[in-house]
Amino acid sequence: MSQLLVPSEVYVLCTKGLTKQQLKVASQQSVTMENGKLVATVQDRMGANCNCAMVAIAGAFAGALIAGFIAAATIATGGLAGAAIVGGISAAGAVGGGFLGALVPCICGMLTSDWEPFHPMVEIEDKYIILENSVMSCKLGGSIMIFYSKTASDTALKLNRLNTAFDVGIIAVMAFSCSFVGMFKGIVTMGRGVLEGFTNFGGKIGLKCLGKVGAYIAASYGGGELVSLGIDLGKDFIGWSDLVNENTVNVNIANIQDDNQKCMDYTPNLPNDGYDNGVSTYETKHTSTYESYRFVNGSNEESLGRTNTATDVQKGALLSKSSTTTINYDAEIRMSDRTGYIEGGTRTEITRGLQYNSSSYKSEVVGGFKESFTKSNILSALGISFLEDILSMAKSPILKKIIQDYQDSLKAEQSEMSKIMEYEATI
To answer: How far is it, in rounded angstroms, from Cα 54 to Cα 225?
Structure first.
């Protein structure tokens, strides 16, 4: 099958690209086409980097997580109102992160492979020429395609941008929803638990708390994956998956007519707040009778009677380096004469601080795994999963119109290609 040669200044667009570029031929200066433009080889690249949809989506994820964690750590309001505030801030972070990510130029030169396929038998200055179906693969998952028509490249670019905007919007909605299942609060709780270990008990205990977080997250993630698998099997059984596939369009411009594109997973399987770092508060109370004397000569004396002690310090627990102590006097007798002043009553001394009670990593693994299968977690996973499917289907009607425009623009692509007179019949 014959293939057209590729001239300088054709349009190139990545399937994940948010900007298009033109091919710049710098690998050779000796061979031109009939239109006077240089013939492209495997060493030629676009004139500048592209902006990447994957970076925009990563920015949306990062913005949602960072904003959500900061909000969860600083907002004291609880209940649905607090969750709504945290969710709103997280959603705003997703939109902002996606917008900033879309503005970041990708380092395409470092991430892309060589053009493939190329003509194996035709070289210019020891470089193989590329053809109309040549593409460059990107390590971020995209493929850089060649367009001969500005109309087709513009329409493909519009499709990429709109789809990315929908993806960022879906991430924002999912971030808002995740705040109601305690995801952000849970991670903040874990972070505080590790920080408590380092600041109050030193590096050794801090590292133990960090290890417990890792064990809990790994177990919770594994349990969550099993829950997700069960939900997916249930969807298949009731026919929901087929409905989603039928109503979810494929927006990959490289194979726009393929069906059954797998939906993006917009929600990381993160644990909630069931983690216990082994750190808890303690209170030790000493209660005793007292007699206090203040003499006219300025001297003071205090004597204590029998002391009763009550504490909730756990056996074998390690106490934190710092603590607070308060002493209260409840005077029951007050007397004075010419020698001075005497007071008697009950003295209460209360010491509060933190204690660390070591537990095995096994308890965190078991706890994290069990937590995934609680009724509330399963219901939350069901709600998030179906919401994700519904949002993916909701964008399809609008994208179908743009996809049809892109398919129509391929006629202009064929028209421009028909103007190219140089081709290779034998490959």
So the answer is: 24
Distance between the two ends of the chain, CA-based, in angstroms? 8
Which residue, 14, 9, 6, 4, is CA-closest to 156?
Answer: 14
pLDDT in tens, 247-275: 776 677 776 533 333 444 545 555 555 66
What local confidence, expressed as pLDDT, does residue 325 receive? 95
Amino acid type, 223:
G
Supply the mean pLDDT for the chain.
Answer: 82
Structure tokens at 100: 């900033």
Q: Which residues touch 123 (CB under 8 Å, ≥6 apart)? A: 41, 129
Which is nearest to 399 in space by CA: 264, 245, 259, 250?
250
Least confident of 77-91, 94-108, 223-237: 77-91
Cβ contact 3:133 at 8 Å: yes
Phi, psi of 342 (to 5 degrees): -125, 140
CB atoms within 10 A of CB 300: 10
